[in-house]
Design goal:
Blueprint (H helix, E strand, L loop, with lengths): L6 E7 L8 E8 L9 E4 L15 H6 L3 E5 L21 H14 L6 E6 L1 H13 L4 E7 L5 H12 L4 H13 L5 H14 L8 H12 L2 H6 L27 E5 L7 H10 L3 E5 L7 H4 L1 H13 L4
Parallel strand pairs: 3-4, 3-5, 5-6, 6-7, 7-8
Antiparallel strand pairs: 1-2, 2-4
């Protein structure tokens, strides 16, 4: 069955410090009705727009769950602010949580919605659930996300040791010399990505589109994370949600895979500290199970969302 045609639009998002009007772009698959409970997807990066999450649209036809994808401010089809490159105070979790609250309000779903956050999106979603405790949030999915960035980097350092020695040497050379924008560094990074970010080769077109869009304006990515998934130099380098996890009150699903950048030790605090939690490992996947094992991933997500609450 072909996916339903989406309805797209832009909503105003007031950011007083932005110095200009801002808008959030969104697209809705399925019908938003007074009784529906849509899944809102939070993309990763930060700053890697929605395209690579399009397999989630399968939930509409398979489970009759409406799906909302949107581009967070600073990337994709939403307002860009390249003049804020390096402004860590501006690109804050509070900014993105405010944007999410504005989105659910303007779409008219504030009383009933699910969240799925992938990678950085899961970090954002877990913080939103713990700190904002939005009364309309029914369930949370944390997909391929770390509970803290220190463990993420330690896991990446271990995974890098399995790369060919010449690739390791090229990565270290550029990181030491600060030549992170060189093509040689990007090529070496991609060897890691092919093993731990997405094991479908060539990469799915929608994943490639997301990364191309990020490269067109890397403001958010470079400010908050850095020039690669594993060499974290931005404001998120010391990020952690561990001390707030006990505050998450909704049923939560945690997802990762054996080849994932989000290795088991990075997600273990979610499983240990969230009161109502389930952990699913997608057996042959890395960081992109929505592409690597699409049917399995959609079934895990859909079954969790449609299961009766305890």
């Amino acid at each position: 069955m072909s996916p339903p045609a989406p309805t797209s639009g832009r909503i105003d998002f007031s950011v007083p410090d932005a110095g200009k009007s801002c808008q959030t772009w969104y697209t809705v698959y399925g019908n938003l009705t007074p009784t529906s409970c849509p899944l809102i997807a939070l993309h990763g990066g930060p700053g890697v727009p929605h395209h690579y999450l399009l397999p989630l649209v399968d939930l509409v036809t398979s489970y009759d769950i409406p799906v909302v994808l949107y581009d967070q401010i600073g990337c994709g089809n939403s307002t860009h602010l390249p003049e804020r490159m390096g402004d860590g105070a501006f690109w804050s979790e509070e900014l993105f949580m405010d944007e999410l609250e504005n989105l659910v309000e303007q779409l008219g779903v504030k009383s009933n919605f699910y969240l799925l956050g992938q990678s950085w999106g899961g970090m954002l979603g877990s913080r939103f659930a713990a700190v904002r405790q939005h009364p309309g949030l029914q369930k949370l999915i944390i997909s391929n996300s770390p509970a803290d960035m220190v463990s993420w980097v330690k896991a990446a350092d271990r995974l890098r040791l399995d790369l060919p020695e010449d690739i390791q040497a090229r990565l270290k050379k550029h990181e030491a010399e600060g030549t992170l924008e060189s093509q040689d560094y990007e090529d070496a990074v991609d060897v890691y990505y092919q093993k731990h970010l997405c094991r479908v080769h060539p990469y799915p077109a929608d994943l490639t589109t997301s990364f191309e869009k990020m490269k067109e304006d890397p403001t958010v990515q470079w400010t908050m994370n850095g020039h690669s998934e594993f060499f974290v130099t931005g404001t998120l380098k010391d990020w952690t949600i561990i001390n707030d996890l006990h505050k998450i009150k909704v049923p939560t699903l945690v997802i990762n895979g054996p080849y994932d950048e989000a290795q088991d030790e990075t997600v273990e605090p979610f499983v240990r500290l969230i009161p109502d939690v389930k952990w699913e490992k997608i057996p042959n996947s890395s960081h992109s199970p929505q592409w690597e094992e699409r049917e399995t991933y959609i079934k895990v997500v859909g079954d969790f969302l449609t299961a009766e609450k305890k």
